[in-house]
Design the sequence.
């Protein structure tokens, strides 16, 4: 289709099934779902450079491998120039594979050590039956600033520096003049001194080749070199999406705020306030309803009528989260006790593990009673009582809100708690 976007990622989902263990089989339970990519949507137009940023394990690599067809899609679709991947025939796949190229993180593994630079660059041209190969190879070497090309043609990867290897890998991705480059942490293995120059070169080449790019990285500090738009990903979902400058200047989602505040500031006299995140992301297994950042979020929203300190409330939320997932390490805690049958000691040890702040009044009473229930083996009552007192609006999945054109954030801070639209913001569909 002539006016269809170049690439539409539409509610893309890649769930893995965790292989069943004996317990699952005995209980006839379905295997757990690893929700590596869970409803990701964005559109890439020609000449766009869009970044996907997030911590390790948020699903970036799975997203990339799904986009190149190495993982089957389990939900949603990827639509290339109007044709959904789910209906690609073999000619569509051939066209897609020549037009969507990847630059991987590790230039040491992405080049065949037995091939010369010339052979590495010639291979894609041969596979896709492109003519004028020698001329194309020389031009690409010039473009990736390996000059003069003759100096590099017969070299093997072992005779190239890390930066030179990555330039060859970039050349290999560009040699077919693709529409789209998917770059997975393309400079993270390079010396800091070469990172910026390789990134600037890559950005220039994307423009010269009239291509578009999806740039995947854990490092928000490099994106301003390379992408006009950033998608921030957390546990399989995009939590915020905005123009790069806007997102770095005025992050809205508490997770984005924490990532931005962790970017080193070059001025030793300026101490930027940091938004602290506690803990690490959980495994993306059977994640269920709600904002996935809520157990680490410094701004998790308490019920309207609850008087509680924010740090204490976050601890309660992290504790409830682990309890509801049946992830409290009770066996380990019990084993650490002098008398493993001592319920009071068990309740105290759980409290020590999960709570560093003091709760007071009815909040403290509810938590103490839940700890006693857990120590006595009554997990369900503990879950119910804690939920009744502490349940947060953040346990409802936040939809994406658009406040200004092309700025989306999935966070309840931008809604009324009863899910009404706040004054200035219009709710968009996911
Ligand atoms: N083939 C697979 N089978 C089962 N689980 C998988 C598979 N591949 C990835 N996962 C899980 O999916 C989640 C997302 O992994 P992924 O590698 O996509 O994250 P990432 O953001 O790229 O992390 P990193 O930067 O560390 O590579 C992780 O919990 C991972 O364990």
Sequence:
């Amino acid at each position: 289709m002539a006016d269809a976007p170049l690439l539409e990622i539409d509610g893309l989902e890649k769930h893995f099934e965790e292989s069943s263990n004996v317990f699952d089989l005995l209980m006839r339970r379905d295997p757990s779902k690893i929700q590596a990519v869970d409803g990701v949507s964005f559109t890439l137009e020609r000449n766009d450079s869009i970044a996907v940023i997030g911590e390790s394990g948020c699903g970036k690599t799975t997203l990339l491998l799904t986009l190149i067809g190495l993982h089957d899609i389990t939900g949603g679709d990827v639509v290339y120039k109007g044709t959904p991947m789910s209906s690609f025939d073999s000619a569509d796949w051939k066209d897609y594979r020549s037009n969507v190229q990847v630059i991987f993180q590790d230039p040491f593994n992405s080049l065949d050590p037995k091939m010369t630079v010339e052979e590495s660059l010639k291979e894609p041209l041969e596979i896709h039956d492109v003519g004028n190969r020698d001329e194309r190879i020389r031009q690409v070497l010039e473009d990736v600033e390996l000059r003069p090309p003759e100096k590099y043609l017969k070299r093997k990867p072992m005779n190239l520096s890390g930066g030179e290897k990555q330039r060859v890998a970039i050349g290999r991705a560009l040699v077919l003049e693709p529409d789209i480059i998917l770059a997975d942490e393309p400079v993270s293995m390079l010396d800091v001194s070469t990172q910026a120059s390789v990134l600037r070169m890559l950005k220039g080449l994307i423009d010269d080749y009239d291509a578009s790019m999806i740039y995947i990285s854990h490092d928000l500090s490099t994106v301003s070199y390379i992408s006009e738009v950033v998608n921030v990903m957390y546990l399989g979902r995009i939590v915020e999406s905005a123009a790069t400058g806007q997102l770095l200047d005025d992050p809205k989602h508490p997770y984005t705020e924490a990532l931005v505040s962790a970017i080193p500031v070059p001025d030793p006299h300026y101490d930027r306030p940091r938004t602290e995140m506690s803990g690490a992301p959980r495994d993306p297994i059977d994640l269920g309803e709600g904002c996935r950042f809520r157990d680490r979020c410094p701004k998790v929203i308490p019920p309207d009528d609850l008087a509680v300190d924010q740090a204490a409330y976050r601890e309660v939320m992290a504790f409830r989260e682990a309890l509801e997932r049946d992830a409290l390490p009770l066996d380990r805690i019990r084993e650490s006790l002098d008398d493993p049958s001592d319920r009071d000691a068990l309740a105290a040890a759980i409290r020590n593990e999960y709570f560093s702040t003091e709760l007071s009044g009815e909040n403290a009473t509810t938590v103490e009673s839940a700890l006693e229930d857990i120590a006595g083996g009554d997990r369900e009552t503990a879950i119910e009582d804690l939920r009744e007192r502490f349940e947060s609006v953040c346990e409802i999945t936040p939809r994406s809100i658009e406040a200004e054109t092309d700025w989306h954030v999935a966070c309840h801070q931008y809604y009324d708690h009863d899910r009404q639209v706040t004054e200035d913001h219009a709710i968009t569909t996911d």
Q: What stands out?
A: Residues 16, 34, 36, 54, 56-62, 218, 283-284 surround adenosine-5'-triphosphate (CB under 6 Å). The two ends are 25 Å apart (CA to CA). Residues 419-430 have pLDDT under 50 and may be disordered.
